[in-house]
Design brief:
Layout: H1 10-16, H2 18-29, E1 36-41, H3 63-76, E2 79-85, H4 98-116
Parallel strand pairs: 1-2
């Protein structure tokens, strides 16, 4: 294991639960730092939902689980930058992997903007709450 890295195996996620593992990872990411750089590795998503990667791993997260995690991370952590890795266009027929890749960027930017407005993580609250209603 490299210094500063704490990998979480798929079996551990299944046994302990995804939410618990995300909580632990968030806690570890804040040890002795003021900001977090989020490197998003698309090959954690099941290849049925993101086949365009150089290292597909069956049994991965669903794209919905992954997007929910991204939004939560950028809401709750002091994210200062984001990148996406392991999207491999030659393997990405019909742009199946590009779509979640695009959405990862959108989730990250929206979460960072919402955090900047002082919003807090409330997963049950509609994202567009209060929008689309005309002022009376």
């Amino acid at each position: 294991m490299l210094a500063g890295f704490s990998p979480i195996a798929r079996r551990e996620i299944v046994t302990r639960g995804l939410g618990t593992c995300v909580e632990e990872a968030m806690g570890l990411s804040l040890d002795e730092c003021d900001g977090v750089f989020l490197s998003v590795d698309v090959d954690v998503v099941d290849p049925g939902m993101a086949p365009g990667t150089g290292t597909p791993e069956p049994g991965g997260l669903t794209s919905r689980q992954f997007l929910d995690i991204i939004r939560r991370l950028v809401f709750e952590l002091p994210v200062v930058g984001v990148d996406i890795v392991e999207v491999y266009p030659p393997y990405d027929h019909a742009e199946i992997t590009a779509m979640p890749g695009n959405r990862i960027v959108l989730e990250a930017l929206c979460g960072i903007a919402a955090r900047g407005r002082g919003d807090t993580w409330q997963p049950a609250r509609p994202l567009l709450e209060g929008r689309g209603t005309a002022a009376q």
